[in-house]
Amino acid sequence: MKKINSAIDRFCYQHPRFGIPNLMLWVVIGNVIVYVMDMMSRGTFSAMLSFVPAYIFQGQIWRLVTFVLVPNYGSNIFFFAISAYFYYFIGSRLENQWGTARFNFFYCSGIVLAIVVGLLEGLIGGGMAVTSTMEYNNLSLFFAFASLFPDMMVLLFFIIPVKVKWLAYLDAAWLLYGVVSLLLKGAYISALLPVLAILNYLIFFGDSLIEALRGRGQRVQHRYSRQTIHFKKAAKEAQQKTGYLHKCCVCGRTDADYPDLEFRYCSKCAGYRCYCMDHINNHVHVTEE
Fold first, then answer.
1. Which pLDDT band, with edges at 50, 70 and 90, does 32 fall under?
2. pLDDT at residue 29 above 90?
3. 153: left (phi over 0), alpha (psi -120 to 50) or beta
4. Domain count, the chain
């Protein structure tokens, strides 16, 4: 996965104009149009756009693309509006964080995997059923957002403040339950759809997850190591001398000027290089002092 991720990074670096700017905005606009047309046609409009392999094999190839615009947020207009805005919000934040090329690569690769599974299920199972939707692709989008902004607070039902990472844990548990249920029913091809959506997520975030798991096992030992104690002592002396403890190497903001801003040190840069949350995942790594 590390090699694949590196290849994607090189491609995005060499082709910065790849993809559609504000992609999630256009997807949500399409969702709104389909939703309104469905209200006028009692669901007939989305039925013409959904991913049905039997119709695709008959020549209705537009369904290979238009199923992306079919909303899967439910029929209630209130929940539809909230869900549409939420996915626009996380999609735009990811595009701002990654850049247009990388975000488009992530989102479109999920679409391609969904198409492959949908066609495969249609070939094996036949029938006139819808075999692929954007449900799991949107879920992987949320997992990506939660990985980059785990401590961001959202208001659940506009009342309960909760961190994004806890919602991601709940969604992951629900996803696992869904996969196990499909496997127990013998729907092995259908189970591929959520599995491949998560595989797409792991291609982009697998290395970070492995590093995080390794770090947890070493955290207690590291906390009381001699190197850590010396570093804390040096940091305290530096704070007394400069008036701040953390300073972003990119924008120059400090924890003294912005006490609510989170700072982290990059493990891939040489030396102790500090970055704020806006630049920890968006900076050029320094390999030499």
1. very high
2. yes
3. beta
4. 2
Considering the domain boundaries, does residue 231 fall inside one? no
How far apart (Å, rounded) are the C-alpha atoms in residues 68 and 89? 17
Encode pLDDT of 186-230 as tens digits: 878 778 888 888 888 888 787 766 666 565 544 434 444 445 545
Residue appearing with tokens 């029929």: 75
CA atoms of 276 and 100, how far apart (whole Å): 22
- Same domain (yes/no): 50, 167: yes
Nearest to 212 by CA among 136, 281, 140, 267: 267
Give the Å distances, CA to CA, from 272 to 187, 226, 244, 249, 284: 50, 17, 15, 10, 14
pLDDT of res. 19: 82
Query: Domain containing 164: what range?
Result: 2-211
- 225 within a domain of the structure (yes/no): no
pLDDT band at 27 (very low <50, low <70, confident <90, very high): very high
CA dist., res. 11 & res. 18, Å (int): 9
Beta bridge partners of 240: none
Does the pLDDT value for residue 33 go beyond 80?
A: yes
Rounded alpha-carbon distances, angstroms, from residue 210 to 145, 147, 205, 284:
18, 13, 9, 22
Q: Is the dihedral of CA 254, 260, 266, 267 positive or negative?
A: positive
Cβ atoms within 10 Å, residue 82: 15
CA distance linking residue 278 with residue 249, whole number of Å: 11
Confidence at 127, pLDDT banded by 50, 70, 90? low
CATH of the domain at 109: 1.20.1540
Classify residue 174: in a domain, yes or no: yes
The model carries a pTM of 0.68
